[in-house]
Amino acid sequence: MSTNIIFGKRIVLDMLNKSPSKIEIVWIQKNRSKNINEILKSCQNNKIRYQFVPKEKLDKICGERHQGIAAKIFLPGFVDEYELISMLNSSKLPLILALDQVQDQGNIGALARTLYGLGGSGIVITKFRSAQLGERAIKSSSGALLHLPVARTQNLKSFLKFCADKGIFTYFTGTNDYCENVYSLDLNFPAVLVLGNEEKGVRKTVRDKCQMGLKIPMLRDFDSLNVAQAGAILMGEFLRTWLKKIV
Questions:
Q1: How does pLDDT run across 90-118, given as a tens digit for each residue?
Q2: How confident is the model at residue 153 (pLDDT cuts 50, 70, 90)?
Q3: Domain boundaries 5-73, corresponding CATH code
Q4: Distance between CA atoms of 70 and 9, rounded to whole angstroms?
Q5: Which residues of 159-181 are buried (b: 16+ CB within 10 A; e: fewer)?
Q6: Average of per-residue pLDDT across 44-70
Q7: Is the overall model pTM greater than 0.85, yes or no?
């Protein structure tokens, strides 16, 4: 059983009431109607994702003494997405990484490790269709996820619009012809860099809310970069540009 799983109505409800920012998702046994109204109301009030699942799944996750209620927690806790924006100007590198439905924990962990090491502000993930930040993500980050601010957003498009309205430059990554060669630009700060899903990339509706697309020039016809590799290269270029600006 994972150490970031809690179960039982009283324990989950206590976490919902006292530390809702630490909860990723609440699982409720299907066809269970007894003693769940308070749980549901607290999830809704705190905008916590919940899911009805078969008893067999809860048995596998928790053992058989779960009382039909369990939750997965992110021990460091999530920060508010707008609180993360306020941290930009005090960061060593004023860059937020926004992950658009990245679904592999290993990729999130690797990206967090790079961003933390380079002094970035933090990460925003989508509340739905993103990997949960479990033990694999923390291990892949070499512990960086325990220290790097992480926020969740229900609407990445609205978050990016808010950033642009506040004078924060918003970039997305892609391979489209209209994306600019990252090595030919003088990058703007503070900034948000959006990286996309492992298979589909950044969604069009999200791209449309960004001010510019970036691409890494490939000198061979060989698309070999995954999201963590591409993100590391781009973050390195953001750091190089920033260090030139503050000299």
A1: 999 999 999 999 999 999 999 999 999 99
A2: very high
A3: 3.30.1330.30
A4: 8
A5: bbebbeeeebbbbbbbeeeebee
A6: 86
A7: no
234-240 long-range contacts (CB < 8 A, ≥24 apart) are 234/173, 234/182, 234/193, 235/95, 235/97, 235/114, 235/115, 235/118, 235/120, 235/193, 236/118, 237/182, 237/183, 237/187, 238/93, 238/95, 238/118, 238/187, 238/191, 238/193, 239/93, 239/118, 239/119
- Distance CA(31)–CA(39), nearest Å, equals 15
Judge whether 206 and 160 are in contact, CB under 8 Å.
yes
Token output for 134: 């479990």
DSSP 173-207: E--STTSEEGGG----SSEEEEEEBTTTBS-HHHH
The reply to whether domains 5-73 and 81-246 share a CATH topology is no
CATH class of 81-246: alpha beta
> DSSP string covering 80-111, please?
PHHHHHHTGGGSSS-EEEEEES---HHHHHHH
Q: What is the dihedral of CA 157, 96, 227, 114, to 10 degrees?
A: -170
Tell me if residue 225 falls in helix, strand or coil. coil
- Token pair of 53, please? 């699942």
Q: Domain boundaries in the chain? A: 5-73, 81-246
Chain segment 59-73, per-residue pLDDT in tens: 888 876 788 899 988
Q: pLDDT band at 3, cuts 50/70/90?
A: low
Q: Given pLDDT bands bounded at 50, 70 and 90, which one contains residue 149?
A: very high
Assess whether pLDDT exceeds 50 at residue 44.
yes
Compute the distance between CA of residue 58 and CA of residue 69 in angstroms, rounded to an integer.
8
